[in-house]
């Protein structure tokens, strides 16, 4: 389920049938008196993990077990292998879901409840959708990253080479260090856009990312407009500044 841009911008929890309400935390919830930015980053990393990354961090005997059984899902690996994995996953999901979260040993799933009433469940069948929705609330996405089906071994090899190249390019360019939340806060407050250290912490994480990328886009448009006004040219998209933030990616 993909949430509407307008709903994500609203800052309100969004309901998903059979699961519960997903929330985007306020920036101030990640500060020293909240969970802390380090813990937040761990939660995001946990929800973003793919099978390959997860297996790299498992003891050899466990990794071999899951590599042999392709029917096992990420939920099976993270929620049923070890209690400590499940506890960490539970904390991450609980932070982004409004309802109370408990583990049901009988059904091997998480139950969401409000005032002792069961609202929904999170299990091996909907886990990828659940974590994608939680990530959407934070301006991330699980993406299409699960490996595509390949026509042959050669196609698979080329795809894997492309992924390695992308990772190397990201490392070389410094990755996303400029997109750290602290830098976004600082840049928005210094931009004269109306945000200050007194009000910016009341934004949700989604709103913070949206405003940062919106400002970056508008600044880029202004540079293009000035260049066109000064030097002219054959083509210029006068409506470029109207593009919604999600369309920039």
Considering DSSP H and I runs of 4 or more, what fraction of the residues is helical? 40-55%
What is the overall silhouette? globular
Helix segment tally? 10
Compressed to H and E, one letter per element, the order equals HEEHHHHHEEEHHHH
Domain count: 2
Low-confidence stretches: 169-175
The fraction of residues assigned to DSSP E strands is 5-15%
The count of strands amounts to 5
- The average pLDDT score comes to 82
How many strands, what sense, and barrel or not for the largest sheet? 3 strands, antiparallel
Task: Briefly note the structural class of the backbone.
Answer: mainly alpha
Overall radius of gyration? 21 Å
Could you tell me how far the N terminus lies from the C terminus, measured between alpha carbons in angstroms? 19 Å
Side-by-side strand order of the widest sheet: 3-4-5
Structure, explained:
There is one protein chain. With 249 residues, the chain is mainly alpha-helical. It folds into two domains: 5-144, no CATH class; 178-248, no CATH class. It is 49% helix and 9% strand. The chain contains ten helices and five strands. It has a three-stranded antiparallel beta sheet with strand order 3-4-5, with helices on one face. A hairpin with a 4-residue loop joins β3 and β4 (109-114). α9 (181-190) packs across α10. It is globular.
């Amino acid at each position: 389920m993909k949430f509407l841009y307008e709903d994500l911008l609203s800052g309100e929890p969004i309901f998903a049938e059979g699961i519960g309400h997903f929330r985007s935390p306020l920036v101030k919830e990640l500060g020293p008196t909240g969970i802390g930015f380090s813990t937040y980053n761990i939660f995001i990393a946990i929800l973003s993990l793919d099978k390959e990354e997860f297996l790299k961090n498992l003891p050899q005997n466990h990794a071999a077990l899951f590599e042999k059984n392709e029917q096992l899902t990420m939920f099976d690996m993270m929620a049923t292998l070890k209690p400590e994995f499940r506890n960490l996953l539970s904390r991450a999901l609980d932070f982004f879901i409004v309802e109370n979260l408990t583990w049901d040993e009988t059904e091997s799933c998480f139950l969401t409840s409000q005032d002792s009433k069961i609202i929904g469940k999170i299990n091996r069948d909907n886990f990828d959708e659940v974590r994608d929705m939680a990530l959407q609330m934070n301006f991330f996405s699980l993406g299409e990253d699960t490996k595509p089906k390949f026509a042959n071994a050669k196609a698979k090899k080329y795809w894997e080479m492309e992924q390695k190249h992308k990772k190397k390019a990201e490392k070389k360019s410094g990755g996303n260090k400029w997109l750290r939340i602290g830098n976004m806060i600082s840049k928005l407050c210094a931009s004269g856009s109306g945000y200050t250290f007194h009000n910016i912490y009341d934004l949700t994480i989604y709103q913070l990312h949206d405003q940062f990328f919106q400002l970056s886009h508008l600044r880029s448009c202004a540079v293009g407009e000035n260049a066109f006004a000064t030097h002219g040219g054959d083509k210029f998209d006068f409506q470029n500044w109207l593009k919604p933030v999600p369309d920039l990616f």
